[in-house]
Amino acid sequence: MVSGLLSVEQVPDASSRNPSVPDGTRADANARPTEVTSLLRPEGTPQEQGGRPDNTIKSVFRTVVGTVIALALPLLLIGANLDMLTNSGWLYSYNWWRNGIPETTGIERPELNRAATQIKAYFATAQSEELLDVRVKAGQREQSLYNDREVLHMRDVKTLVRGFWSAAEWSGAAMVIMVVAGLFVVGRRRFWDLFATAVRWSAVGSLAAVAVLAVAALINFGALFNLFHVLSFANDLWQLSSYTDYLLIMFPERFWLESTLLLGGLIVAEYAALWLLTNRLLRRAPG
Q: At 215, is the secondary structure helix, strand, or coil?
């Protein structure tokens, strides 16, 4: 009986029973079960794909993070530097000295500093419709320094400046989110490499713009200054007289030229510092 069972289990295949079947046909018959197995296996299984969908998602994520950082960084730097310069007492004091404002206006330096304090407080308030009323002492009485046209223009300037500040705040928040998410998703080493690339491309675009504007300012700042006002304001309230309007007498064209160059220089220095900091972080990050 045992021998009978063994004889049943050891049934030869069809090709061995039929010597007339060619060798190639026997090979196809033997390979058929493998083909069926491969057809039944889904193409999207980890065995076949090796995690490709996950890699695609990370690639898209890296592109988004790099783009956001590259675009947000110049807005952050411009807004932060505008905030610093607008609220810096030393810049106003430098202007009084550099352009001889006490002699030109007949207003003593302490009163000019008082006017600067009022201007800084005006920009610090969020009320968009509030009007500036700078008051200084002329002899024994106090009077408003700016006329109606100057006051209305300063309201427009405040809206523009605070718009840059808001853009800087949102850009900074976006960058913080991207940094935290990037470190968590792609890892420390890969993220700082991505960050360095984003800073490099952001620097290339921003520094090219700074260079063009600096050259244009040195060639003909008056034309550049007028173009800025035409593009920034929807009215002509900015067209003031440098002989009768105290806003232009206190802040002449040379002040704006030097402030513009200072702003560009600060941005260049900050990009250089970011570049050095990023390279240092890359060297310290684990491989």
A: helix
